[in-house]
């Protein structure tokens, strides 16, 4: 099991960054999603043993926090969002250093650094100084240092940050290959396409609360029930204003209106509004959902449930 979390809490003074998160995650690939300030970074740092929990209990790969923090760090690789290296170091020296920090003997760390840099596509650049690397090369070095010690699990924090479309696809292919080698992946990204391509399941946080955990397919199927697309006979703008006045969340999507239903709103309520306002509806159907649409729908629902400040 990757994680076993029971009522995990983290506070900074009176501010609650994590609010009683409980979940169990088996091995595999997991996306970690949420808006800024949702608690993603706090959760990652807590699971790495870098932050002490304020309450609850947690284990990672069967090791308990905080008692087994050293064992956890030996078993996990972490690719940070921000660059963290000395520009004057060569790639191979840096990756070997990071391997040594996990407890590997110096000679083994150096040997593995060469292997890992070849694996991520930087074999020919491994003796170059990091300060002269492009953004794409720096991202690959960060992935290499996360893999050098042969971890069972890697945390990848915004691994495609700053990459062009080709570089992003190449990074995602690399991550896919990491998965195929039996290494579990936790991917934190604001690019939902990346999560959808790499991950089978996802954790979604908002304001420190767990608002969803499960497979991406199940989330999309569930959310599809609450998002409908409507096309009228040249009355889209008029109907959109009518629905907004009745409290519906409406977006223009090309020739159609996309409406998110939040309890107690219903499909019947939409139809009643069309009938009452003499709107001619040409098309009415569940929306075809991307992960992004499902994500926004869930956040919208959570916002409506949240108590007023």
Assign the CATH topology of the largest domain. Rossmann fold
Count, helices: 11
Quick one: CATH class of the largest domain? Alpha Beta
Label the CATH architecture of the largest domain: 3-Layer(aba) Sandwich
User: Biggest sheet, open or closed, and with what strands and sense?
Assistant: 6 strands, mixed
User: How far is it from the N-terminal to the C-terminal residue, by CA?
Assistant: 37 Å
Which strand-content bin applies to the residues? 25-35%
Strand order of the largest sheet: 6-7-8-3-9-10
CATH superfamily of the largest domain: P-loop containing nucleotide triphosphate hydrolases
Helix content: 25-40%
Q: What is the string of SSEs from the N terminus onward?
A: EEEHEEHEHHHEHEHEEHEHEEHEH
**Rg computed from alpha carbons, rounded to a whole number of angstroms:** 23 Å
Number of structural units classed as domains: 2
Structural class: alpha/beta
Number of strands: 14
Mean pLDDT: 90
Ranges where pLDDT stays below 50 over 5 or more residues in a row are: none
Shape: elongated
GO molecular function: ATP binding; ATP hydrolysis activity
Keywords: ATP-binding, Nucleotide-binding, Transport
Pfam family, one: ABC_tran
InterPro entries: AAA+_ATPase, ABC_transporter-like_ATP-bd, P-loop_NTPase
Provide structural commentary.
Belongs to the ABC transporter superfamily. With 309 residues, this protein is of the alpha/beta class. The protein has 2 domains: 3-215, P-loop containing nucleotide triphosphate hydrolases (Rossmann fold), CATH 3.40.50.300; 225-305, Alpha-Beta Plaits (2-Layer Sandwich). The protein contains 11 helices and 14 strands. The chain has helices at 40-47, 69-75, 91-101, 106-119, 135-147, 165-180, 192-198, 216-224, 236-245, 267-276, 291-305, and strands spanning 3-12, 15-25, 29-33, 55-60, 63-64, 76-79, 153-157, 184-188, 201-206, 209-215, 227-232, 249-253, 256-260, 281-286. The strands form 3 sheets. The chain has a 6-stranded mixed sheet. A hairpin with a 2-residue loop joins strand 4 and strand 5 (63-64). Helix 4 (106-119) packs across helix 5 (135-147). The longest helix has 16 residues, at 165-180. The chain is elongated, with a radius of gyration of 23 Å.
């Amino acid at each position: 099991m990757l994680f076993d979390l029971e009522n995990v809490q983290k506070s900074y003074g009176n501010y609650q960054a994590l609010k009683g998160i409980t979940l169990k995650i088996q091995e595999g690939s997991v996306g970690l999603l949420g808006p800024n300030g949702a608690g993603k970074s706090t959760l990652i740092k807590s699971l790495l043993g870098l932050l002490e929990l304020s309450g609850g209990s947690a284990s990672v790969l069967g090791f308990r926090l905080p008692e087994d923090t050293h064992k956890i760090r030996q078993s996990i690789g972490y690719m940070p969002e921000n660059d963290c290296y000395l520009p004057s170091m060569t790639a191979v020296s840096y990756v070997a250093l990071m391997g040594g920090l996990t407890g590997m003997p110096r000679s083994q760390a150096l040997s593995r650094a060469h292997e890992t840099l070849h694996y991520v596509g930087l074999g020919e650049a491994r003796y170059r100084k990091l300060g002269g690397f492009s953004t794409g090369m720096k991202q690959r070095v960060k992935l290499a240092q996360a893999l050098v010690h042969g971890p069972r699990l890697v945390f990848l924090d915004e691994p495609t940050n700053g990459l062009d479309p080709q570089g992003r696809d190449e990074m995602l292919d690399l991550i896919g290959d990491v998965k195929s080698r039996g290494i579990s992946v936790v991917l934190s990204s604001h690019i939902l396409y990346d999560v959808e391509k790499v991950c089978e399941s996802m954790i979604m946080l908002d304001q420190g609360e767990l608002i969803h955990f499960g497979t991406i397919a199940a989330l999309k199927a569930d959310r599809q029930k609450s998002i409908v697309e409507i096309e009228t006979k040249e009355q889209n703008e008029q109907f959109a204003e009518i629905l907004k006045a009745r409290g519906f969340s409406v977006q223009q999507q090309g020739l159609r209106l996309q409406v998110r239903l939040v309890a107690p709103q219903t499909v019947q309520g939409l139809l009643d509004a069309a009938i009452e306002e003499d709107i001619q509806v040409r098309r009415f159907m569940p929306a075809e959902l991307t992960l992004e649409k499902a994500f926004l729908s869930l956040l919208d629902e959570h916002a409506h449930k949240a108590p007023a400040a």
